[in-house]
Amino acid sequence: MTLSDGYPTETIIGLEVHVQLKTQTKLFCSCSTRFGAPPNTQICPVCLGLPGALPVMNERAIDLAIRAGLAIDCSIPPMTKWDRKQYFYPDLPKGYQISQFDLPICADGFLDITDEADPVKTRRIGIIRAHLEEDAGKSMHDEATGRSDSRIDLNRCGTPLLEIVSHPDLRSASEAKEFLAELKLRMTHLGVSDCEMQEGSLRVDANVNLHIDVDGKKVATPIAEIKNMNSFRAVEHAIEHEVDRQYDAWEETGKTIEDEAKTTRGWDDAKGKTFLQREKEESADYRYFPDPDLLPIRIPQQRVDEAKANLGELPAELCQRLQTQYGIKLYDANVIVKQGRELIEYFEEAATKSGDGKRTSSWIQQDVMRTLNETQANIGEFAVTAQQLGDLLQRVTRGDFDNARARDVFTHLLKTNDSVEDAIKSLGIEAVDSNEIEVLCRELLDANPQVIDDVKNGKQQAVGALIGQAKKKNANANPKQVRETLLQLIEQS
Amino acid sequence: MLDSAQEVLQLQSRGDATAVEIATSAMDKIEATQGSINAFTHINRELVLSTAEAVDQKRRNGEPLGPLAGVPVAVKDVLCTRDMPTTCSSNMLRNFRPPYDATVVEKLREADAIIVGKTNMDEFAMGASTETSAFGDTRNPWDVSRTPGGSSGGATACVAAGTVPLSLGTDTGGSIRQPSGFCGVTGLKPTYGRVSRYGLIAFASSLDQVGPIGWSVQDVALLLQCIAGYEPRDSTSLNHEVPDYQAALQSNDLRGMKIGILSEALDVDGVDEAVRNAVLASAEVFRDAGAEIIDISLPHSKYWVPTYYVIAPSEASSNLSRYDGAHYGHRATQLAPEKSESLGPLVATYCQSRAEGFGAEVKRRIMVGTYALSEGYADQYYNQALKARRLIKGDYDAAFSQVDLLLGPVSPTPAFPLGEKVDDPLQMYLCDLFTVGANLAGIPAISLPAGKDASGLPLAIQLQAPALEETRLFFAGAAYQAMTDFHKLRPDTFQP
User: Fold this and answer.
1) Spans of all domains in chain A
2) Contact, B292 vs B259, CB < 8 A?
């Protein structure tokens, strides 16, 4: 990359991603992890860190961490343990966070993303490690009113997080975004996490610096860790802004990685700028040591093997299969897979029933997803079941009626508990006998003789007007059938 | 009556006394001795009597009664109780009322015991004399100018003073055994993980263990029976069945048992002649009971105290981080303006709350532990201590492949005068010379009364056993007490 009228630069990005594991209860107690409860209502002596309370590990979190690790090709070591990371902050009631220091549960993996330079190829982004830790609470500082009081909500305290740390292998803001999208797809697909940045179930810190090529000599700018980005777009913008800022700062001060320690910068979405939060990052000493309240965790190979066997298809494999099995395009397969497991299952069931993958895929992407969007509903609670949709589309493909009539049935099904059969009946849709069609067509041709001439003179589209009239006379008339009958009669005349 | 749990139980089952009468008598004695002994940080007569009344009611109704029905038990103030303050004898927690009971307290309630109050201790269990308490010194009932030992000094003094037959203490480096020895009572540190730590306010999590204190092995075994057992809320709790301890007390015949005597401990500088003689004399008693006495050495025992004084403060520095004035405990309200200015209000609140809330010994250990865990020092101190700990455990494994029990002293000296060591931390730490080994190795150990020295102060011996072999300690301890009357000696102040 070359900045306008500057030296060529290479952007170096490493990400630290916190993924909230989708457990019912917290990492070390049985409090709920539900989002959005009133402050300080999902707490107990353990997550409050009350004197005398002790943590007990949630096995489900271990299962999910193994699953997540396998999804990003990490190895799962046979032994892992808990360590205390110590620092003072009001939202950390014990004065330490239970985390993992030197023996993380997942190590040494990778994630492939699309290569921007050549979209047919992929680029491999290394994963250094992924470790489990408990979340802290949430501090709310009332700065706006100028008062100095702060509020603390400890509901989030003890929620299980998996911190995934990438190698600094990413080379642009858009690659970082692509990495996050792929990671989110895998984690949501495997049911490991909801990965909702707005709800904090996915949080990203980006370590960014530049390698500037100054007449053949590589100069590295000081590393900045960017925090508080609350959407993928924000990550992309923040990195883009930071790249420009670092280049400008280097031009202005000439400071390199040797002159300045890593700094922490926040992202201000409204201003579109990063701002300095903390200097001298390296001076923090967390005094890690093994947590004596918890036992080391042994993970037998068998448990890893079982998790592997139960992992199922990863999104890329799934897209491949949907393409070949249902005859849909890669683009369409991708759209469906990105909607998550429930919609994929819905698609597969409907497509199998209808016997027409393409039609099912297009109906799902248009009618089904639009309705879900409008009603803010989940596919799991959708009024039209996969079996019903499949049944309906099968009839369309068979030629019982057209898409427009099918849409009427679909709308009817959304509002009632009727079966497809009943819906068709109550809408008065019935297959029209070919004799009946022929009678109808003859009537229309008799009334519009100029159409016969037009068609004979090569204007086949002239029958279109008659099809419209046919539908008015008999709503069930299949346009395709009407058209064919009309042309046949004209030819015979 | 109040010096035997078995007798308290019998009096009630025979109908000779009610729980209310017993509790009243205990409360009278506690109140009468509180001025001279100061064993308690909290008592509540009304609450105690209503609990006792409920037990009597149960008995009158013919409902099933727990194994400690109507027995007054004192609880060290480091164990959480939802109906009494739990202070750790610290200003930091002076007004702390836990919203829950420690598991051992729950178990006492289930056993229908009468919890009479909370006993004084060294602040956060850090000390060997109960002098670091923010609630004043506890005094030794045998000689009120002397310490009862510590940190469970209140828990042993209240038994020695005759106010209750049983109490619960905790032992991180000798905190049950040393004060039991100083007060002439029997005290057990169980195997690490035998008794749940849930609700025990942590000092050093890998070493802390709750244990029973009473006059006799029988009573101590009775109390352990009630509090021992696996508990899912404590991940370090051991999932092993609890044996019937009373069954171990049936025989005094020690034939076939091998007891290793730690003679080299007796030659260490500073070991009192009377202490040495008490251990040697007890060896003769065990020999008379049929045991074989073998000389045993634990080669790394010289590293016990240094290892302990790295590991325990390291864990403590972490465990005590939560006392920052933000959520509970003492919070400084009047911040020094210059601190507030230079540190900001948050950090200034932390610093000043901790400066005001903690005493000198606690601060000392937090600083030592913080240092030992710091980057660049952890390898020299904390990690090195973990290696030494493995060697120390290895010594015990080797010893127990040759003998069934280890016999030695509890402390180098009998109870020392109040004030003698309180300003000399190193001298105080040497009180733990013979006790910290069992904590580092996680094994059970018992302190047994072994007579008096020339000035009438109690002497004691210590038996140590392999993990989960409390039965062996009770068996040998009961045999010893069957052949001696040391556990029947009472201080002059004691009133039957």
Assistant:
1) 9-298, 313-426, 434-492
2) yes
How far A91 CA sits from the closest chain B CA (Å)? 9
- Complex ipTM, two decimals? 0.95
Q: Answer yes or no: is pLDDT of A2 > 50.
A: no
Measure the CA–CA gap between B349 and A88, rounded to whole angstroms. 12
pLDDT exceeds 80 at position A100: yes
**Residue B123 sits at the chain A interface (C-beta within 8 Å):** no
Asked if A56 has any chain B CB less than 8 Å from its own CB, the reply is yes
| CB < 8 Å to A57, chain B | 235
d(CA A341, CA A320): 15
What pLDDT digit, counting tens, does each position of B253-310 carry? 999 999 999 998 998 888 999 999 999 999 999 999 999 999 999 999 999 999 999 9
CATH of A434-492, one of 3.40.50, 1.10.3470, 1.10.8, 1.10.10: 1.10.10
Those of residues 182-241 in B touching chain A at CB distance below 8 A are 197-202, 204-206, 232-236
User: CB–CB of B378 and A294 under 8 A?
Assistant: no
More confident residue, A215 or A26: A26
Structural domain count of chain B = 1
Q: Give the chain A residue whose CA is nearest to the CA of B99.
A: A45
Beta bridge partners of A84: A98, A289
pLDDT in tens, A338-367: 888 889 999 999 999 999 999 999 999 999
Note whether B233 contacts A285, CB cutoff 8 Å.
no
Positions of B annotated as catalytic residues are 76, 151, 175
Could B322 and A295 be called an inter-chain contact, meaning their C-beta atoms sit closer than 8 Å? Answer: no
3-state secondary structure of A297: strand
Positive/negative CA dihedral, A297, A301, A303, A308: positive
Q: How much is the mean pLDDT over chain B?
A: 96
Q: Which domain covers residue B206, as residue numbers?
A: 5-252+412-488
- Beta-carbon separation of A49 and B200 below 8 A: no
Backbone angles phi, psi at A128, to 5 degrees: -70, -50
The CATH number for B226's domain is 3.90.1300.10
pLDDT surpassing 60 at residue A316:
yes
